[in-house]
# Entry
Amino acid sequence: MRCSLVIVGVLALGVCSAAAPLQTSASLNPVIGTWKQNMEKSTYSPGPAPVKGTTSVRQYAAGDDGSIVAVTMNINVNGIPSLGAISAANYDGREYVQHTLATLATSLRSHIGPQITRTISYTAIDRYTVEIVQRQDGEIVAKSTRTISRDGNTMTDSSNFTNAQGQQVKNVLIFEKQ
# Structure
């Protein structure tokens, strides 16, 4: 009797699995969701830190093609949001278009086609870690490593690069899943 129950259970699991839609690797990515920056835990070097009362929100969604769509919003002291950046990319190390409000406006008004001046690339290290490189006109403007905690509740974005002014930038931004 026990053996029959095990066989029935395995068969039922198999039927349910076959009926369920396949999940892409993007839908299993722990970054999917909405994240709000914890300004008190975040650090900025050389600084300055953002104005007190401001924050940043990031939203990540799975694209149908396995890509990740990323939207970053900055919230000012009056609670008014503004677009930081938007992109859709696979985590394969290739460069993809990244839009800021200015580049998006230029792209949308262009009748000939967008002029791509800003790109972003993501290279997956493991399920929880990705290296990110942002370029403007072909030059690297930012490098960071984004790590999701194993419990899926905290995202750490660590930047370590030299900016256009020759300063070493070491920012650690802490986000909490909403």
In short: Residues 1-27 have pLDDT under 50 and may be disordered.
